Amino acid sequence: MTRSLLALTTAAFVTVLTEALPAGVLPGMSAGLGVGEAAAGQAVTVYALGTALTAIPLSAATAAWPRKRLLLAGVGGFAVANTVTALSSAYPLTMVARFVAGVAAGVVWALLAGYARRLAPPERQGRAIAVVMAGIPLALSLGIPAGTFLGGLFGWRSAFGAMSAIAVVLLGWIAVGVPDQPGQAGGRVPVRRTLTVPGVLPVLAVTLVFVLAHTVLYTYVAAFLGHAGMGDAVDVVLLVFGVASMAGIWVVGTRIDRALPTLTVLSTILVAVAATILATAAGSPVLVYAAVALWGLGWGGVPTLLQTAAGNAGGDAADNAQAMLVTLWNAAMAAGGVAGGVLLDAAGPAAFPWTLLVLLVPVLAVVLGARRHGFPVVS
């Protein structure tokens, strides 16, 4: 089981790294495609759109497919899209490739948590999801710096070429080392029926608002650190966040199968405490680092907690619930980037942690109010 879960962890790593890599090689990518950095940055936006627009319909259309075939198709999509990106010198073709990569991400994200659950016994399903979700902070804390370094040495195209090579190796790993799992018996469950399953709506609501709150600050963390007089420490701050996120995933993985609602509440509170410190003590570098560590510790396990909650609540419609979560997650990321930009112009970077804190109030209220369905207490 461990090797199979690590293959899924690598799939999560590839998904996040493919999404975020343009940010690390943006100047070179801009020059190579002959466009401005703002236009090159739309590679991330187009990717997110590909995921948000296709995750639900593709999940419904492929509900009866064997899970391994679907996972191979998604990872194969990454291999093709990253290869085209590495070779393309035409901006429109590159954007098409990025959209295809986003579609592949929608397939993979909607699949990973459910696949991990099926590979583990019932009492260890949450831990299995935590192992797979460790690919997220690994990509952000290690993958992006490594891709940026590689791009600096050999050009930005080499970074995408390396991503293609990883995807090809992963295809062989999955084909040989991951057992197949059946699709849903009888085909797809209607999306509308999924929304009527008790507990699904609270989990989706928490996903939307929590991710929005986090993204508002995370997207513009460099601007906030500049406001705090730490503009030259962005890389160190993000490293602290990534390491703390890994610790958060470890903590969640050891307890999630017995204490999902408690962990969700604690994660929300930790991020709220971090926001409070950042809002009131941004002038102290020591307190900023402490706050970022608390933020990472609280946020690191959130993808695992929400994916597990969606799968538990969805029941027979778990794959649909996961697809909806993926769609809302990406929509919240896009909205957070836009809202953060508006907030930056209107109120300045000091408003980011206060906004995060305010948005966490309804998150906490919904989690506490959904203790029967959505985030139930296990006796």
From TrEMBL:
Keywords: Cell membrane, Membrane, Transmembrane, Transmembrane helix. One of its GO terms (cellular component) is plasma membrane. The chain crosses the membrane at residues 38-58, 70-90, 96-116, 128-153, 159-178, 199-221, 233-252, 259-281, 287-311, 323-344, 350-370. Signal peptide: none annotated. It comes from Amycolatopsis camponoti. This is Uncharacterized MFS-type transporter. Residues 4-373 form the Major facilitator superfamily (MFS) profile domain. It is found in: Cell membrane. GO terms for molecular function: transmembrane transporter activity. It is a multi-pass membrane protein.
